[in-house]
Design brief:
By secondary structure, the protein is α/β, with parallel strands linked by helices. The protein has helices at residues 11-22, 80-90, 105-112, 133-139, 156-169, 187-198, 209-218, 223-234, 238-241, 246-251, 258-264; strands at 2-5, 27-31, 44-47, 61-67, 69-70, 75-76, 94-98, 116-122, 141-144, 175-179, 203-206. Helix content is 37%, strand content 18%. Residues 2-102 form the NmrA-like domain.
Length: 275
């Protein structure tokens, strides 16, 4: 079966593609810029825009992985129901939806529709630590607010592996799966792991909430996205800091730790390599 993957050039999307290929599945990857996709050989790369469902080629597709938001501003995918209707008409039978942090029109349409659906809810991506790479390389420090807030981060490779297993093997229909790593960590915990992985001292500098807000706004993030991110970090809900065994239950192996992620990505935090 051909599996269609949206968000295929993102941190998690690339892992979904890789894991599907490892399982021997033909993959059609959707991106807005095929020339810049840099996906593995053997992947069918097509251009499409989730905000324009008519541009998504569903012919020959029997399973698909969808994002519930669109674009760099994390806006909800308002035309998600139209996208799902086209997929159903084309003969798609199974779908995974990557949660965006809130109930979206796409998720509502999927869970009310006729497809075999699974919603995947990663609480926090380990790959989000890559935003610190430049400040670590240049100044040897990480600046973040809320030093004592804990998050049950999940390795993006585990997100990809769970997604591929669900799409290919089935048996997970009608379920919503929270995804976490094996432990809930603070930012200082993560910084300590990066220090160990890179062999250099990395300082943690606690920002005020106002400083963090100003920095994110200056970087061009929409105000509503900044508010949502700060609220999530300030008042982390129980599900965001509670470790669950979903990865191990689906894959039959433990979830990967942040320490292992830090070792895999140590090069991004040194002068020898930039993202």
């Amino acid at each position: 079966m051909t599996v269609l993957v949206t968000g295929a050039t993102g941190n998690a999307g690339r892992q979904v593609v890789r894991e599907l290929l490892a399982l021997g599945q033909p993959v059609r990857a959707v991106t807005r810029n095929a020339a810049a996709a840099r996906l593995p050989a053997g992947v069918e790369v097509v251009e499409g825009d989730l905000t324009r469902p008519e541009t998504i080629p569903f012919d020959g597709v029997t399973a698909m992985h969808l994002l519930s938001n669109a674009g760099a501003d994390y806006a909800p995918l308002l035309r998600g129901p139209d996208l799902l209707e086209r997929a159903e008409r084309a003969g798609v039978r199974r779908v995974t939806v990557l949660w965006s942090g809130y109930r979206s029109p796409l998720e509502e349409a999927v869970t009310a529709g006729s497809l075999e659906w699974t919603v995947l809810r990663p609480m926090d991506f380990m790959s989000n630590a890559l935003v610190w790479a430049e400040s670590v390389r240049d100044r040897g420090e990480v600046r973040e607010p809320f030093a004592h807030a804990r998050s049950a981060l999940v390795h993006e490779g585990d997100i990809g592996a769970v997604t591929a297993a669900v799409l290919v093997r089935g048996g997970h229909g009608g379920r919503t799966y929270p995804l976490t790593g094996p432990e809930a960590l603070t930012v200082p915990d993560q910084v300590a792991a990066l220090s160990a992985a890179t062999g250099r001292e990395i300082r943690y500098v606690e920002q005020s909430e106002a400083e963090a807000r100003a920095e994110m706004l200056a970087a061009g993030r929409p105000a509503e996205v900044v508010d949502a991110l700060l609220s999530w970090r300030r008042d982390m809900p129980a599900e965001g800091r509670t470790v669950v065994p979903t990865v191990e239950e689906v894959l039959g192996r433990p979830a990967r730790s942040f320490a292992s992620w830090a070792r895999e990505h140590a090069g991004y935090f040194t002068a020898q390599r930039s993202r």
